[in-house]
């Protein structure tokens, strides 16, 4: 791999396939710069829809991280971009040819904000479903009895101790 400069950012490019490697800090800088440009674009021009990208599903390969050599995870960048990147959580991200440009366009067109909104909506729906499940399950008493009855008010430990004592008394007779 050899060094290549994108704007003011130093990246590593594979001479054979033209893929690009970015470490975690570099990718964060690219995101930050792209978001700043998106804010500038939003204040000066019309709103644009997030760019969608069609991944190459024919040639799927799991790549090793250039740093640790462990296989990287394939992730849809931002959850909705359609750009499937290879990520080593501790070391960085691999972009196949053309993917980094699509990511920058995705960010500049408001894709990160759309992804955040979608994630927040998903979290709210999951929390609501969890709450509904808790409400439904708390209204069904165990063994058909009532949790407030004297049988259950002593607690599970006392109930089990009483049952064990009863069984021991039967065995010792």
Q: Which keywords apply here?
A:
2 domains, 173 residues, elongated, alpha+beta, 46% helix
Draw up the topology in text.
Elements: E1 2-6, E2 9-13, E3 20-23, H1 24-44, E4 73-76, E5 84-88, E6 92-95, H2 99-108, H3 111-138, H4 150-153, H5 156-172
Antiparallel strand pairs: 1-2, 2-3, 3-6, 4-5, 5-6
Helix pairs in contact: 1-2
Could you characterize the architecture of this molecule?
The structure is a single chain. By secondary structure, the chain is α+β, with helices and mostly antiparallel strands. The protein has 2 domains: 2-118, no CATH class; 143-173, no CATH class. Helix content is 46%, strand content 16%. The chain contains 5 helices and 6 strands. The chain has helices at 24-44, 99-108, 111-138, 150-153, 156-172; strands at residues 2-6, 9-13, 20-23, 73-76, 84-88, 92-95. It has a 6-stranded antiparallel beta sheet with strand order 1-2-3-6-5-4, covered by helices on one side. It starts with a strand and ends with a helix. The relative contact order is 0.11.
Strand order of the largest sheet: 1-2-3-6-5-4
**Treating each run of at least 4 consecutive H or I residues as one helix, how many helices?**
5
Whole-number mean pLDDT: 75
Name the structural class.
Answer: alpha+beta
Helix content: 40-55%
The N- and C-terminal alpha carbons lie at a distance of 82 Å
Order of helices and strands: EEEHEEEHHHH
SS elements, strand count: 6
């Amino acid at each position: 791999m050899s060094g290549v400069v994108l704007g003011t950012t130093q990246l590593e490019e594979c001479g054979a396939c033209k893929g690009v490697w970015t470490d975690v800090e570099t990718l964060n800088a690219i995101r930050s710069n792209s978001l700043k440009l998106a804010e500038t674009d939003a204040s000066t021009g019309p709103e644009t829809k997030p760019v969608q990208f069609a991944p190459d599903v024919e040639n799927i390969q799991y790549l090793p991280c250039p740093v640790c050599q462990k296989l990287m995870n394939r992730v849809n960048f931002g959850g909705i971009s359609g750009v499937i990147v290879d990520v080593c959580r501790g070391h960085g991200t691999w972009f196949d040819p053309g993917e980094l440009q699509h990511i920058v366009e995705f960010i500049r067109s408001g894709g990160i904000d759309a992804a955040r909104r979608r994630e927040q909506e998903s979290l709210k729906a999951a929390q609501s479903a969890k709450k509904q499940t808790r409400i439904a399950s708390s209204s069904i008493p165990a063994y058909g009895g009532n949790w407030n009855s004297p049988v259950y008010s002593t607690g599970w430990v006392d109930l089990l101790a009483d049952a064990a004592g009863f069984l021991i008394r039967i065995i010792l007779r």
